Amino acid sequence: MVIIETRGTEEVNRMLKSLGSIVRDLRPFFRDAKMILMREVHENFAAGGRPEWAPLSPTTLELKAKGRNRFKTYSQGRITKTTANFMASAKPLMDTGLLRASVGVPSKDGILDMSASRLRLGTAIVYAAAQNFGKTNGPRPNWIPGARIPARPFMVVSREGEGKLVRALEDRVRSIAK
Question: Which residue has better confidence, 8 or 49?
Fold first, then answer.
């Protein structure tokens, strides 16, 4: 099982550390942060990455097309129109939607762990780390040795998302101070 933990921005982390001695239970903020982070991840998928993810390689497209039973990949040595359409429209990390749907969901594929002092949000999908950080394949069955999977970071927070996290934390601090 691979666990990817998202970490807050430096400003949010600094604010949380300074609050640690005053606030004993950060769950109200974490509930807000969870929603902001989930929205950020879903927006990353919807945009095809922010910045845009590297496209699928021709080898990956061909392997995906061959692996689909509903496609007849080759007809007399040529790629069929159906397969060509699939290959033209295929997008990274969007084949089944499993990775996107797993992030932050308390299930066998998702990770959501919240306590008074910690929020963990991520995915337990085995290929998530390779997709998020990139990797070079080693010699394993059914893998192309030396093939490079480019990083397609989906567990990232935009500057706008960082601002939302800071504002949410500031709002919680103001509500405690009242």
Answer: 49
**Tokens standing for residue 90:** 């295929």
Above 80 in pLDDT, residue 127?
yes
Q: What's the mean per-residue pLDDT of the chain?
A: 79
> What is the pTM (predicted TM-score) of this model?
0.75
Which residue shows structure tokens 């033209």? Answer: 88
Measured in whole angstroms, the distance separating CA 104 from the mean position of its chain's CA atoms is: 10
- Give strand ranges (E) for the chain: 74-75, 78-79, 110-114, 119-123, 135-136, 148-149
Q: Which residues contact 124 (CB under 8 A, 6 or more apart)?
A: 1, 2, 3, 102, 108, 109, 110, 111
Domain spans of the chain?
A: 10-54+94-177, 57-90
Write the DSSP string, 116-153.
SS-EEEEE--TTHHHHHH-EE--S-TTS-TTPEEPP--
